[in-house]
Specification:
By secondary structure, the protein is an alpha/beta fold. The chain folds into two domains: about 190 residues, Spore Coat Polysaccharide Biosynthesis Protein SpsA, Chain A, CATH 3.90.550; about 35 residues, no CATH class. The protein starts with a strand and ends with a helix.
Length: about 230
């Protein structure tokens, strides 16, 4: 079985400009994704999809492959990630397993990637995602606001559930890892159009970098982990 890891890193990040090659704990952010893929011991290739020649240069220096540059129309703020996935799988030779390792989850470890691949290969699903236990429950801690300004519980619990502890557990999706097949990407349009299973990742490895504050916290966590 050919298992290919993919890292999608466009050059136009606005929340944290230049984040994909910005140093984090002495290594460009993209390097942490490359390292986790390599440490999993499960990937035959690690391929970077980017529109930015500088990102491509850094990725290759860190040991990843950049066999193509992503077209500009697939690297806009509003471009669905799925289209970048589909472009990438069509740009390489035939393979069996697609593993996406977003740059934005630098605290993942190789074992997280391995767990996702092994769960997928046990069968019974079209996609494996990662999640972490949610800190807040939509049946007790989240509200919607109507046009008239009144608040209502986002997901009302059943009449028999009166305590948060009794409600079914909920999880936050993370960007640690996604596993599927090239065929599923070509036939579908989004993650949840198929049967999805999840690997639960501890909160300390599930940080998703979207802001400068997230980046600073990741730096703190990595320095502490040393």
């Amino acid at each position: 079985m050919k298992r290919y890891g993919f890292i999608f890193a466009r050059g136009g990040s606005k929340g944290v400009p230049g984040k994909n090659i910005r140093p984090l704990a002495g290594l460009p952010l993209i390097g942490h994704a490359i390292k986790a893929g390599r440490d999993s011991g499960m990937l035959d290739r690690i391929i970077v999809s980017t529109d930015d020649p500088k990102i491509a240069e850094v990725a290759e220096e860190l040991g990843a492959e950049v066999p193509f540059l992503r077209p500009a129309e697939l690297a806009r703020d509003d471009t669905p990630e799925w289209l970048a996935w589909r472009h990438a799988v069509d740009m390489v030779d035939q393979f069996d397993l697609f593993v996406s390792l977003p740059c934005t989850a630098p605290l993942r470890i190789g074992q997280d990637v391995r767990n996702c691949i092994e769960l997928f290969e046990r069968g019974g699903c079209d996609m494996v995602v990662t999640a972490r236990p949610a800190e807040r429950h939509p049946s007790f801690n989240m509200v919607t606001l109507a046009e008239d300004g009144y608040a209502a519980i986002a997901m009302p619990p059943g009449a028999t559930i009166t305590r948060r502890q009794d409600a079914p557990p909920v999880f936050d999706l993370t960007t640690v890892c996604y596993v599927t097949t090239p065929d599923f990407i070509r036939r579908r349009e989004s993650v949840f159009q198929g049967r999805v299973k999840a690997v639960i990742v501890p909160p300390e490895r599930a940080l998703d970098i979207d802001t400068e504050q997230d980046f600073a916290f990741a730096q703190f966590m990595m320095e502490r982990n040393k």
